[in-house]
């Protein structure tokens, strides 16, 4: 082992194999979130506590309501404008979508910015 060898993290990440796509399956891993606030109130995560309650329901009666609404979140028109993203309770999905959108907009842009 060479102690002076310290490759950059991005180099090491490039060596990892790509994740395989499984288009006909969905896997969800959830951990029940439980915590106490600074005032001593007990709190649980909304989705994880719902899933925890569903484990005691018979499979044919397990139903999770899903609603699709149009997003009101919009990125700035020019993809070079910086963005600060804060999403308490939204998870990573909206951020990943915004990053993909921004990346695509920059790649497809033929304009000059000055």
From TrEMBL:
Keywords in alphabetical order: Flavoprotein
Gene Ontology CC annotation, any one: cytosol
Enzyme class: oxidoreductase
An example molecular function term from Gene Ontology annotations: NADPH-hemoprotein reductase activity
InterPro entries recorded: Flavoprot_Pyr_Nucl_cyt_Rdtase, FNR_nucleotide-bd, Riboflavin_synthase-like_b-brl
EC id: 1.6.2.4
The keyword NAD belongs to this UniProt entry's keyword annotation: no
PANTHER family xref list: NADPH--CYTOCHROME P450 REDUCTASE, NITRIC OXIDE SYNTHASE-RELATED
Listed name of the protein: NADPH--hemoprotein reductase
Annotated organism of origin: Amphimedon queenslandica (Sponge)
Upper lineage: Eukaryota, Metazoa, Porifera, Demospongiae, Heteroscleromorpha
